[in-house]
Amino acid sequence: MSGNASRLAAISAITGAKPISTEMPASLNEIWASDVFNLATMEESLSKNAFKAIKETVHTGAVLDAATADIVAAAMKDWALSKGAKFFSHIFYPMTNATAEKHDGFIITNSDGNAITEFTGSLLIKGEPDGSSFPNGSLRMTNAARGYTAWDPSSPAYIMNTPNGATLMIPSVFMSWTGEALDKKIPLLRSNSAMNKAAKKVLTLMGETEISPLNSSCGAEQEYFLVDEKFAASRPDLLLAGRTLFGAAPAKGQQFDDHYFGAIPERVQVFMQDFEDQLYKLGIPAKTHHNEVAPGQFEIAPYYEAANVAADHQQLLMTVLKKTAKKHGFLALLHEKPFAGVNGSGKHVNWSVGNSTQGNLLDPGNTPEKNLNFLLFCGAVIRGVHKYGPLLRATIASAANDHRLGANEAPPAILSVYLGDQLEKVFKDIQTGTLEPSVCGGVMDLGLSQILAFTRDPGDRNRTSPFAFTGNRFEFRAVGSSQSVSGPLVAMNTMLADSLEWIASKLESALETDGDHTVAVFAVLKELMEEHGNVIFGGDGYSTDWHTKAVEERGLKNTPTTADALPAFKDEAVRTLFESTGVLSPVELESRYEVYSEQYILSIEVEAKLVIDMATTGIYPAAMGYLSELTSAINNASSAGISIDSSVAASVAANADAMMKAVATLEKALEVHDFECVEGHMRYCADTLCGLMSDVRGYADTLEGLVTDTAWPFPKYSEMLFIK
Predict the structure, then answer these.
(1) pLDDT per residue over 204-262, tens digit each?
(2) DSSP string for residues in 313-371
(3) Structure pTM?
(4) How far apart are CA 631 and CA 203, in angstroms?
(5) CATH class of the domain comprising 600-722
(6) How far is CA 587 from CA 182, 396, 497, 652, in A?
(7) Domain 29-183 in CATH: superfamily?
């Protein structure tokens, strides 16, 4: 079947499709965490002493002895077997934003040759996968393939079901044979530990006597597109690159603002409900779903959880999203910019810090100017973003996210902090030494008796800010939709730890001078604001004026591309930050730079090769076929003495010729490999290859508007975005 025939057949099949038949779901109480080996399940299956030990490990990080590990392993195996599992896997998250797993059977044979099941504490604690295929950033020699996985008790094991079986999945860390972190979980756990240590110093100085372990929390808003898999099958770019490398803008996109919070199509609603039932079984608290801004774009937002668990759940959510979408005949697109001309997809990370004794330390309360703990922790965030803004930008850098950042649809590539009117005034007052009572939001009263009055928030929200305070947490809005949240969380936790250590040192000195906590806190924060207050900005982050002033007047960095951003990992201040906090050693940090750089280069080169292939084998033949039809019709008419305008034929010929010349230039550019360093290679990708791909696309998209619809080989935007 030709490309066009496949496209037309897909349209026919999709328009006649019905939502797949599904059973009415069971109640939330019945399905919630039913496939999770969590503390509630363990309490039912473990002895009191074993349960007490594992609970202490989960809540405080206490060491778990080998005997208790054996007991937990036996109970976990019995539970998994009762769920139909025959295999187990230590699941881990390498530096590529992917999920990795190696499956082993519970089966062994005894001396009689009979099959029995076995799962010991040693098997639970340690796995030994072949690590040779995972990017390692020069952490080991090519011939050294051994790596280890190790069980993370703080993140519960779970069952991953398939239509004919199940596997016990054990969240794990992944390290080299020599002990370096090869994954995203180890740095995340270390960063939380560093933050906890520094936070306790500050709270102790503030007179707190009972301080529970502190943890960061995360709630990630996942945006995604759905495209019918029949369309996707005819789009090599969607299958291999995750985004459309060609595609003319449809007459209607998102200009009517009729998609955001719009009614959800029935077929999509059925998918969403099935998807969320799968999440509930896995203990993932999916709370909100809705249509997003762009046509065919949607969002799901889980409730916040402890950062480590949230990061694992976020990876699992993306896996279940893709699997469930396929079941319903969709391809779920997690690429940050799958379609040009409409909004891309992000993953806003809502981040806070707290514990069971002091509560949420980023909750200002009704009188934030009097909430000293809040002011210190919020101030620490301000300092961290200002001092390590380039690092935060580097953690969300990718070839895909470059298409969002800096555009008027996503936060700019300049890291600033939005506090809202109330808090911005409080911190400015502290800086000037003229603190006044903060202004509350007041009451929202519409003058309608049937509409109950309610308390208005003291500040508005700012969708143009990349790092915005939103009531009792910060929202890092620049994170890409396909990315792991671990990288940004590591950076935020670590910069907070560093700032809290700085505050602790300053506060200790201030308290020695004046024992009054209020005076000491305001003195420390005044110094902090004088040094780092430039990062606070409440205006339009999209404006050209801000882009100029941010750099020229405030000294902030604008890093629009990954090639600009990733060198931050090589900065001496960043190196010192991670080494001093114990989060990443210098060699582990260097490895991240190498891996992320390589991923960027490979992404651009794959896209360039796809552009060449699709233009040469799909678009050019379609244009030439249509040109042949046009010239034949013109010649026939001329023979009959009829004059026909030939401008369309001329335009097709001119654009097809220009496109193939641009393809030839791109092909030649891809042959260049004599780069002095990785940074130079990245710069070449950003400055040369991306521009050449855009040149090819410009001519191809023009041809889409000229060539007859019946000859066009690829599904169009108007079809993929609107036919569900």
Answers:
(1) 999 999 999 999 999 999 999 999 999 998 999 999 999 999 999 998 877 666 667 67
(2) HHHHHHHHHHHHHHHTTEEEE--S-SSTTS---BEEEEEEEEETTTEETT---S-GGG-
(3) 0.93
(4) 81
(5) mainly alpha
(6) 11, 20, 21, 54
(7) Glutamine synthetase, N-terminal domain (3.10.20.70)
